[in-house]
Structure formats: C-alpha cells, structure tokens
Specification:
The complex is a heterodimer of chains A (69) and B (138).
Chain A (H helix, E strand, L loop, with lengths): L1 H29 L3 H15 L4 H5 L2 H6 L4
Chain B lengths: L1 H22 L7 H23 L2 E3 L5 E3 L10 H25 L6 H15 L5 E4 L2 E4 L1
Parallel strand pairs in B: 1-3
Antiparallel strand pairs in B: 1-2, 3-4
Helix pairs in contact in B: 2-3, 3-4
Classes of the chains: A mainly alpha (69), B alpha+beta (138).
Chain lengths: 69, 138
C-alpha cells in the first residue's frame, strides 16, 4: 500500500516535470533571439560599410609583440 | 526521492543548455552570406556618395530607396536606379539567408526589422532614413 502510494507520487511528479519541460523546449526553440540578431546585424553592417577598419588593423599588433616575449 | 531530484536536475540542465543555445551567436559563416556581404561591400563605395547627398535613404523595411532623384544628374539616374535595385536584391537575399542558415526560415521578417533599425543606428550623420512620419535625417 505504502509502496504503491510512493510510486504513484513518483509517477505523478515525473509526469508534471515532463508537462513543464516539453512546452518549455518548444517555446525556447521558436523564440527569436533578438540580442543575437542585433549582434549579427551590427557585425555585418560594420563589414559592409567598413566601419571598423581601425579595429581590424589592431589584431596584427599583439602578434608582432608576442615573439618578443 | 533521490531519483526524482536527479531527474529534476537533469531537466533543469537540459533547459539551461537550450537557453544557452538560444543565446548563442547567429550563424553567419556560409558561402551565400559571405558572397552577399562582399558584393554589398563593393557596391557601398558607389552608394556612399548618394547617401550623403540625400539622393537615396534607408527605408523602414531594411532596404534603400531613391529619395531625391533631383540630387543626381539626369544621365546618372538610370545607373542609380539599377544600383538601388541590386542593393535591395542583395539585402532581401541576405535576410533570407541568415534565417535559413540558422534553421529558422520564419525568422526572416524579424531579422529584416532588426537590420532596418541597425542600418539607421549606424548611418552617418546627414544620411536620410524613413520612420513612421516619413523621411528624417540622421
């Protein structure tokens, strides 16, 4: 009696957990990643309009500093 | 009881990994996107002067349009029109390609409106853009 009560509580909890988890997955997957899209847009626009030319030139500097260490 | 706790932890872990995936960067490194990007980069050197003179401006739907054809010599208007048409073809293709490259073709409209806002934000001062009230100057 006690055992079957325990297992039915277990089953109930498992069902509840799934009931919460499954719709959550669906919701997250169709959610539009606004922040990531904005970042992607900024990156492409910087490239197309060549707005970050000075920053692009910089990564070459650390490379020339490293061998001296 | 331990099993249930473990199960809940597993589910929480799974959910947070999904969240992390959703928050990750969008995929931009595809041949199609790179080709569109370099084409638009080259075209921009021809378009830059037209943005500055107000001949063209940024539209609300993430494209460009001829705003003031009179700012351009009559003989150059046809080539300006075809530049604008090519740019808009590439922009439309770019929004679609980003959506497809990320496995969500249905994101195209939201990607377009994100770009529409960012083009305007990054536009140089003096360039024109459309808002709800019509043309405005950066």
């Amino acid at each position: 009696m006690n055992l079957s009560l325990k297992s039915s509580v277990k089953n109930g909890l498992a069902v509840m957990a799934l009931a919460v988890a499954i719709p959550a997955c669906v919701t997250i997957n169709i959610y539009f990643p606004a922040a990531a899209a904005e970042k992607a847009a900024d990156k492409l626009i910087d490239d197309i309009w060549q707005l970050k030319n000075s920053e692009k030139a910089n990564p070459a500097e650390p490379a020339s500093v490293n061998p001296a260490k | 009881m331990k099993k249930i706790l473990f199960g809940i932890l597993m589910i929480a872990g799974f959910l947070s990994s999904q969240l992390a995936l959703a928050a990750a960067d969008l995929e931009l490194n595809t041949p199609a996107i790179s080709a569109l990007k370099s084409g638009m980069q080259q075209r921009h050197s021809q378009l830059a002067g037209f943005y500055a003179s107000g001949a063209i401006g940024l539209t609300r739907d993430g494209l460009i349009a001829v705003k003031e054809a009179n700012a351009v010599a009559l003989k150059d208007r046809q080539s300006l029109n075809s530049l604008v048409a090519s740019e808009n073809n590439d922009r439309n293709a770019l929004y679609k390609e980003i959506a497809v490259a990320n496995g969500h073709a249905e994101w195209e409209a939201e990607i377009r409106s994100t770009f529409a806002q960012r083009w305007v934000q990054k536009a140089q001062s003096g360039w024109w853009y459309q808002d709800a009230n019509g043309w405005a100057k950066r």
